Amino acid sequence: MDAVNRQVRLAQRPVGLPKASDWDHTEEPVTEPGDGEVLIKVKYLSLDPAMRGWMNDARSYVPPVGIGEVMRAGGCGEVIASEHPGFAPGDHVTGITGIQEHAVLHGDGLIKIDPGLAPLPVYLGTLGMPGMTAYFGLLEIGKPQEGETVVVSAAAGAVGSVVGQIAKIKGCRAVGIAGGEEKCRHIVEELGFDAAIDYKSENVLKGLRQHCPDGIDVYFDNVGGEILDAALACLARGARIPLCGAISQYNATEGMRGPANYMSLLVNRGTMTGFLVFDFADRYAEAAQEMAGWIQEGRLKSFEDVASGGVSAFPDTLLRLFSGENLGKLVLEV
Length: 334
Ligand SMILES: NC(=O)c1ccc[n+]([C@@H]2O[C@H](COP(=O)([O-])OP(=O)(O)OC[C@H]3O[C@@H](n4cnc5c(N)ncnc54)[C@H](OP(=O)(O)O)[C@@H]3O)[C@@H](O)[C@H]2O)c1
Hints:
The chain contains ten helices and 15 strands. It has helices at 50-54, 129-142, 158-169, 181-190, 204-211, 225-232, 263-267, 284-296, 314-318, 320-323; strands spanning 4-10, 23-29, 37-46, 74-82, 92-96, 102-106, 111-113, 149-153, 173-178, 195-198, 216-220, 235-243, 271-274, 304-307, 329-333. The strands form three sheets. Strands 3, 4, 5, 6, 7, 14 and 15 form a seven-stranded mixed β-sheet that branches. Residues 48-50, 129-130, 133, 154, 156-160, 178-180, 183, 222-223, 244-248, 275-277, 321-322, 324, 326, 330 line the site of NADP nicotinamide-adenine-dinucleotide phosphate.
C-alpha cells in the first residue's frame, strides 16, 4: 500500500500542561492487516482528560504511553481491509486507534457501529465511553432516587452533560457546576438542568447552599480540588459521591490537592467511591441501547464539539479540555 500514515507520538513526558515539544509528528507507510487484524481509516479521534494521566510515568489502570509511541486514543473509522471474519471493508468501528490516520488493530478489540443510526462522533461521546461513564457512574455508584438532588461538576462536558440529563430522567433535581455564562445557560436552557453554578464567577459554596437547600444526595465529581471541597460541605445524610475524575489536578506540578472537608462523609454517613467505566464493559450494549432510546425520544441530547485540522492539530486541540473551551464531547476530525 502506498498511502502515508501521519501520526503523533509522545516525545517526552510533559510537566504541567503538555507543550508542542512534548510531541513528535511522524509519517510511515500504511501497512496491510495480518491474520485476525483489520485496517481502519480513522475518521474521528476522541480527546479525553484521561490522556494527561497516560503521559505520566506512574502506576495506573493502564500502562503509561511509552516515549516514542503513538499517543493512545479512542477513535472511530471505516474498515478498508480485513483479515478478521467479523469485519468487512465498509464497516464502521470504534476502538483504541491512537493519534494516527490509519490503524491496524486486532478485530477482537473493535466494536461495530452504525453511522445510519447516529453520526460517528456520537459513538465517541454519549453512545461511547463518556456516555457509559455517566450512565454507570451515576446509576450504579450514585444510585439516585426520585426526588433527590444530584450535583455534577464539568457539567457542560461529555460526561457531566449526560449525568445531569440522566438525573432528570430519573426524577431528580439536577444542579450543574460549569465554567462561564454560556455553559451555564446551555445546561439549564438546552439540557434541562434545574440550576447552574458558574464556578468562574460565583462562590460555589454559596451557590450549592442556594440551589440544594436540603443538601446534596449525589455529587458526581469530575474535577476534584476546591469544588469537591465545596460539595463535601453541603452533603445530605447518606450522600454518595461517585469519584469519576479530578481534571482540576491533572496538570498539577506540585502534587494533587486532596479534599480537606472529608470529615463531612463521617458526619453525614456518606460514601465516596472511585470507579472506572471499563469495569462495566460487559454491560455497554445494554446501556447504549437504553440511551439511544432516550436520544430518539428527545429526552437525552448529545453535543459534540468537532475540531478540525487532522492529527497534526492534536497537541493544541487537547488543551481545550483544560482551558474549558469545549462544549460537549471534544473530538478531532481526521
Ligand atoms: N472514571 C472513569 O472511568 C472516567 C471515564 C471518562 C472520563 N472520566 C473523567 O471525567 C471527567 C470529565 O471528562 P470528560 O471527557 O467529560 O471531559 P469534559 O467535561 O468534556 O471536558 C473537560 C472539562 O473540564 C472542565 N475543567 C477543566 N479544567 C478545570 C478546572 N481546573 N476546574 C474545574 N473544571 C475544569 C472544563 O469545563 P469548564 O469550562 O466547566 O471548566 C472542561 O470543558 C474528567 O475528570 C475525566 O478524567 C472518568
